Amino acid sequence: MKKLIATAANERIGGFLVNDWYKSLKENVKLDDTDVLVIDYGLGPWRNFLKDVILFSPVCTSGNLVNTRFINLAIFLEEHPEYDQVLFCDGGDLIFQDDVSHLFELEKNAFRMVLENESPPIDVVVKDEDLIDGEKIKRFLRDKRLFNVGFLIAPREKYLEIRDFMEKSVKNMNAWGVDMIVINYLAYRGEHVALDTKYNFIPSTAKKKFYVKNSKFYLENGELIPVVHNAGRFDIIRPVKNFGYGEGKNIVDPISVWLFRIIFRLSNLLKKLS
Q1: What pLDDT score does 232 carry?
Q2: CA 233, CA 174: separation in Å to the nearest integer?
Q3: Packing angle between helix 178-189 and helix 134-141, nearest 10 degrees?
Q4: What is the DSSP letter of 93?
Q5: Cα separation of 214 and 245, whole Å?
Q6: What is the C-alpha separation between 269 and 202, in angstroms, rounded?
Q7: Using 50, 70 and 90 to split pLDDT, how confident is the model at 264?
Q8: Residue 89: is its pLDDT beyond 60?
Q9: pLDDT-derived band of residue 35, with 50, 70 and 90 as boundaries?
């Protein structure tokens, strides 16, 4: 059986996908028995630069890319049963600095993700009416630390399960945060493993100290961080400016880090008081 590393992208993030995400993947991750898939939501000319990559046109386009990408991945996997383990990750704000292929061999039947240090105020973002039984699902997750779904490893069957649950339970496929709610709900109700935070390191919420040297991210002890995720819904609160892979990149903005954490903590406080 083969393994698959997949993402989804459109023309807006095409430059980053080609020059940062894919370049960092090719240079740092062992791909001997692994294919790379990009779900092409309109890459335009950037698709010409993706050599040795499977390009798959989305079947489901009713909803935003962040949500429908999981349905389209499941469709691809149904057509290609040769893949048994899949890494699905963000392609517009994430880079690889070291190998992660060994994670395919860890707890093969489980969801494998990194827990958020600061969970987003999901009760505020996702409305009960966005989901069938939304209040019940959110109540189940309310006191749990949420997994960040921007870097997810799971067996192919789990992605089919995500698709089935989305089609059954999501009423608003345009709602931001629905993917996180659905996947966390399924993970906590089944087998799941929390990966070390270095496999989806988010500078804005990281508790471990880090530094940038020669455009690369390191932990305080000098260890190179395998996966760095410059997460944030809006560019203004992303903590790393000129984020990417290669020389002259990655300027950490302490004000953005502070702003990001304040927004999260205030929102969560308001949620608890409501």
Answers
A1: 72
A2: 14
A3: 60
A4: S
A5: 10
A6: 21
A7: low
A8: yes
A9: very high
Rounded CA-CA distance 14/46 in Å is 6
Kindly state the average pLDDT of the residues 218-223: 97
Rounded to the nearest integer, the mean pLDDT of the chain is: 91
Structural contact between residues 22 and 30, judged by C-beta atoms closer than 8 angstroms: no
Two structure tokens written together for 253: 């903005």
Q: Residue 242 burial by CB count (10 A; 0-12/13-18/19+): exposed, middle or buried?
A: exposed
Rounded to whole angstroms, the Cα distance separating 196 from 118 reads 15
Strands 34-40 and 2-9: parallel
Residue type, 240: V
Q: How does DSSP classify residue 162?
A: H
Instruction: Please state the separation of Cα 86 from the chain's center in Å.
Output: 13
Query: What's 241-257 look like in SS3?
Result: ECCCCCCCCCEECHHHH
57 CB neighbour count, 10 Å cutoff: 11
pLDDT single digits (tens) 36-72: 999 999 999 999 999 899 999 999 999 999 999 999 9
| 3-state class percentages of the chain: helix first, strand second, coil last, to nearest 5 | 40, 25, 35
d(CA 52, CA 36): 8
Q: How many CA atoms lie within 13 A of 246 on its CB side?
A: 12
Q: What is the pLDDT of residue 26?
A: 98
Torsion of CA 194, 65, 19, 255, to 10 degrees: -70
Q: Considering only CA atoms, which of 77, 84, 85, 34 is closest in space to residue 59?
A: 77
Is the CB of residue 185 less than 8 Å from the CB of residue 106? no
The amino acid occupying position 239 is P
**CA-CA distance, 144 to 148, in Å (whole number)?**
12
